[in-house]
Amino acid sequence: MKAFIFDLDGVIVFTDKFHYQAWKKMADNMGIYFDETINNRLRGVSRAESLEIILEKYDGTLSDEKKAELMEEKNNTYRELLKTMDPEDVTDAVRNTLKKLREAGYKLAIGSSSKNAKFILERVGLLDAFDAISDGTNITRSKPDPEVFVKAGELLGIEASKCVVVEDAYAGIDAAKAAGMEAVGIGDASGYDKADYKIQTLEELPGIVENLSESCKIEDSQN
């Protein structure tokens, strides 16, 4: 294995509360019922797909122009909330894990559907921690489509079979497997049977690395 590709929200940082608050404000303005249960369905999917899920509770039809306006409204609120983030919003466990992996010679990338990935990484002081960023600005299909991870591998210049994805969403695990990559489930995804490895915190990741290395050695000796 030569590279690790991380989902951003829910793995490196936690901005779920900001997404919820921004979508909630937009929904309330439109008189649309929205709660945390619905919000959980939005994890790992694009902004446009998230809006469509919210609009399931809307009694009416909206034009594409109005939908674009609503997405922009949500994003403006979200970005204002993101401005409150700073380096303290990243745990020592996350920073230490990224440092250990880089020191071990692994390439690191972000694979996120968010169009705000770089902005978030700048706010928390992690933009330089990654060799490549594949996000909503350079993909056209969101997870579970594998495009975001395939693009990350291409940006790193490393073939899919040598990449490991770390994800907290089922859709992200599905995307990683569809891309031909190993998948590590964390958070909600730690209970997903399609994940190759399951961890509770990023601090466990170096141990996964050791297991992967041993597996590769065994395969090489058998070939």
Structure, briefly:
The chain is an alpha/beta fold and 223 residues long.
Description:
- This protein is α/β, with parallel strands linked by helices and 223 residues long.
- The chain has 9 helices and 6 strands.
- The chain has a 6-stranded parallel sheet with strand order 3-2-1-4-5-6.
- Helix 6 links the parallel strand 2 (107-111) and strand 3.
- Helix 1 (16-30) packs across helix 4 (64-82).
- The longest helix is centred in the N-terminal third of the chain and has 19 residues, at 64-82.
- It is globular, with a radius of gyration of 18 Å.
- The model has no long low-confidence stretch (mean pLDDT 92).
Amount of beta strand: 5-15%
Helix content: 40-55%
The largest beta-sheet arranges its strands as: 3-2-1-4-5-6
Number of strands: 6
- Mean pLDDT metric: 92
What is the H-and-E element order?
EHHHHHEHEHEHEEH
Distance between the termini: 17 Å
Structural class: alpha/beta
Query: How would you describe the shape?
Result: globular
**Spans where pLDDT lies below 50 across 5 or more residues:** none
Radius of gyration based on Cα positions:
18 Å
Secondary structure tally, helices: 9
Main β-sheet, in a few words?
6 strands, parallel
Classify the oligomer: single chain
